[in-house]
């Protein structure tokens, strides 16, 4: 054990000595490893960070929620445009049927989204604000954290009261000098509404600002003043499964209710789509898989080039130290000691290149975090392990043949080359 440690430390010392004695040669040899590790780990870091941000945003919406819409999320709607355009939008009577008849549902709500409306307070106007109007259980399905105020009461939702909930960004821009705008009256579509709640800030993500830039109104209020069957609104029925109930069971119940409501014949296909967040997550996983593959492909080629450079410098190192190898073997050094010594030197050179590449990745992450505020770029422990694992692996592969050549040298012939 002591001998192995001594050989290991000697290998590190010789590697550092070779690096210092032949600075340019060593730097150029390890450059390929540096570039390869940088390519692989930087792509993995970006993909992991983006994937984590997107999935975190989706998890807030929940995968136990079924969205009933016209178009499915797992198809390209332009390919079957005529088929989907002929489908009816989900409507209020269908929502009520689901609410009354679907036993597997914990909560259900109908919601519409209208883009591009103005909201005004005195002389301050926000343009192109998105408005969401949902039935009462909309707040139960999508858990909302309030900074100030509250959600609609059941009576306010039922009567369609002129109340409104505003997102954090909307409140901040509409009331820049006011910490608590609850109770203030704003104008939307020319009508006065009273603010009863301000949502907590969700922050930016790749999917946007969540509910930060949205206002929420009772569904029955919107029914009074707009055509809810207009193509300008985006209707959907949202149904949350009871705890412990499989989503597929929930879908089957919904399908039965909707088919009966729409009077579809047994052989007719569904003229509605039931979507889940897992559908989008599947697409995201595939996309990130391709990006990961591209990063690995680029990185592996760079690492292979670097591996050839390391192998070359190790052959040169063996040639320069042939006499020393002969002396060591004549004094009793075993073949595996010589083999181990040169392998350690090759691994150290590769680790140096890998460490440099890893430091460059950390620099890239710091720059990205300074520029982007929608997510955090983090070099995970798994990515660090991959970097060091690749470095060690390429060091073993690159140094194995030169190390075997050195270990099999005849000590007499090796010493004779010095004279």
Q: How many helical stretches?
A: 14
Task: Enumerate the strands of the largest sheet in spatial order, edge to edge or round the barrel.
Answer: 2-3-8-5-7-6
- The ordered string of helix (H) and strand (E) elements is HHEHHEEHEHEHEEEHEHEHHHHH
* Class computed from helices, strands and strand pairing: alpha+beta
Question: Tell me about the biggest sheet?
Answer: 6 strands, mixed, barrel
Overall pLDDT level: 82
Please give a structural write-up.
With 419 residues, the protein is an alpha+beta fold. It has two domains: 2-58 and 282-416, no CATH class; 64-275, no CATH class. The chain is 56% helix and 16% strand. The mean pLDDT is 82.
Write the layout of secondary structure elements.
Layout: H1 2-21, H2 23-61, E1 65-69, H3 81-85, H4 92-101, E2 105-121, E3 124-134, H5 138-141, E4 146-149, H6 154-159, E5 163-166, H7 168-174, E6 185-188, E7 191-199, E8 214-218, H8 219-225, E9 236-241, H9 247-261, E10 273-275, H10 277-320, H11 322-330, H12 335-371, H13 381-407, H14 411-416
Parallel strand pairs: 3-8, 5-7
Antiparallel strand pairs: 1-9, 1-10, 2-3, 2-6, 2-9, 4-7, 5-8, 6-7
Helix pairs in contact: 1-2, 1-12, 2-10, 2-12, 2-13, 4-9, 10-12, 10-13, 12-13
List descriptors:
single chain, 419 residues, six-stranded mixed beta barrel
Summary, kept brief:
This protein has 419 residues and is an alpha+beta fold. The chain contains 14 helices and 10 strands.
